[in-house]
Amino acid sequence: MRRCPSRTTLTKALTLFAAAAAAACAIAADNSAHAATDRWLIAFAANLAGDGGCHKEDVSGCDLYLASFDPAAQQAQELRRLTSTAGTGERFPSLSPDGCFVAYEAMTTSGTDAEHSVRLVHAPTLTDQAVAANAYFPDWSPDGLALAYAGAAPADQHVSRLDITADCAHGTYTAEATSTVTTADIGYRASDPDFFPDGERLSFNLNATPDDYSQVAVINADGSAPSDITAADGYGHSFVRGDGAAIGFGSSQLPGLFVSSWTGTGWTAAAPLMAAPQPAAYLSFDARFSECARVSTSYAAWVGDSGRQVLYSAQCYLSSTPLFSRLVIATIAADGAGVQLFDIGGAIEQLAGVTQRDFFTADILAVRAAATAVDAGFGNAAPDRHLPSDQHR
Questions:
Q1: The predicted structure's pLDDT at residue 82
Q2: Domain membership flag for residue 204
Q3: 130 with 149: CB under 8 angstroms?
Q4: DSSP state of 291
């Protein structure tokens, strides 16, 4: 997935690690083919200002942030903290198409039980409102008139759609109607929806039974015409390309990212999109990668429509235990034979004046107009160049 008044732009030169220089050049070269792309607006979860981790197994330090990034200059330019609720981990952000709102999952833990809810934060004013209880994995429709999300309650693990009217100028929203997209008729659990660019269809994760591995499926937004895209081999966390002609996804059983493409009559079998880089490929970004046995490519999103760039959480694992997570952009060679990695988390850290922090899940919006979503996201107020001094964790 993945547009309010004047802005104050704060620029800061970035000194990139030597090993990342080629990746930065690859990003600039890829965007030279899209000269109208001014900046990227990125909403992400990170522990920039708090104690506690921000990765798959520890969200105690996760807050949401909004940043803008100039891909031609390789500069992070603006940074704003969106959430700071004690005792709550915020993750899985989804940017509204106008860049004004961020939908996200709020996770609180009491004992061994976790509670999940979908909330909406107005980026210019930080007004934060509840949307749905017992829910997670929100995703904005491309027209900004609906939110899809998955039920987190044991009795309701299916995808719903909320028709919504969001008012950027006033920071409010009105819920119009909620409808069920998936039901038990198609499987035991459906989650992690992602809209197609036409807003008429969704990709999602499907577990046919409690014992089955997940698979990727597609369904119309009105709940009709469900269709399997992959076999039940652990594929999931799908992300639809901007032209709707390809679906990327990860795997719980195999390293790397995979893709299925539309042929005009059907979807191709799952094929490799990019192999999972070895830990050594990330060492110039963060010395902690020397401790990793492997690094997963998790919760990915396409960057633009070229099909050559993906943003993902690079999660470091020691055996089966995640240690930390970083935010990386991979530029995939045209022949698919190589990958250049760019440490976008490090660029944000330099703007914030911190190091070795966790970044976990993100959404990115490519801005291709003079009147930009960056303005909407940051509104009238000057963005925070450095973090507030309060330590709420």
A1: 97
A2: yes
A3: no
A4: G
H-type alpha helices, the chain? 21-32, 344-352, 373-378
Would you say residue 12 lies in a domain? no
pLDDT at 26 over 70: no
Instruction: Kindly report the length of the chain.
Output: 393
Q: Are 329 and 27 in contact, with CB atoms under 8 Å apart?
A: yes
Residue 244 within a domain = yes
Please tell me the predicted confidence (pLDDT) of residue 30. 52
Average pLDDT score over residue span 221-248: 96
Say whether 281 sits in a helix, a strand or coil.
helix
At 376 the pLDDT is 65
Phi-psi region at 187: left, alpha or beta (left = phi > 0; alpha = psi -120 to 50): left
Q: Which residue has the higher pLDDT, 88 or 31?
A: 88
Nearest to 329 by CA among 341, 337, 339, 338: 341
In CATH, what number is assigned to the domain containing residue 97?
2.120.10.30
Q: Strands 146-151, 159-167: parallel, antiparallel or unpaired by DSSP? A: antiparallel
| Residue 31 confidence class, pLDDT cut points 50, 70, 90 | very low
Global pTM value:
0.86
Alpha carbon separation from 5 to 124, 146, 162 (Å, rounded): 10, 24, 28
* Domain count along the chain: 1
Residue 187 in any domain: the answer is yes
* Number of helical (H) and strand (E) elements in the chain, helices listed first: 3, 24
- CA dist., res. 51 & res. 106, Å (int): 17
pLDDT score for 379: 64
- By residue range, what is the domain housing residue 87? 18-377
Q: Which of 111, 67, 108 is nearest to 88 (CA)?
A: 108
Reading the block at residue 387, the tokens are 């973090």
Residue with tokens 């992959």: 230
Q: Could you tell me if 251 and 242 are in contact, meaning their C-beta atoms sit under 8 angstroms apart?
A: no
- Per-residue pLDDT of 324-359, as tens digits, reads 999 999 999 887 678 999 999 999 999 999 999 999
Distance CA 326, CA 10 (A): 24
Q: Which residues pair with 117 in a beta bridge?
A: 106, 133
- In the numeric block, which tokens belong to residue 330? 């991979």
Residue 34 scores a pLDDT above 90: no
Local structure of residue 290 (DSSP, 8 states): G
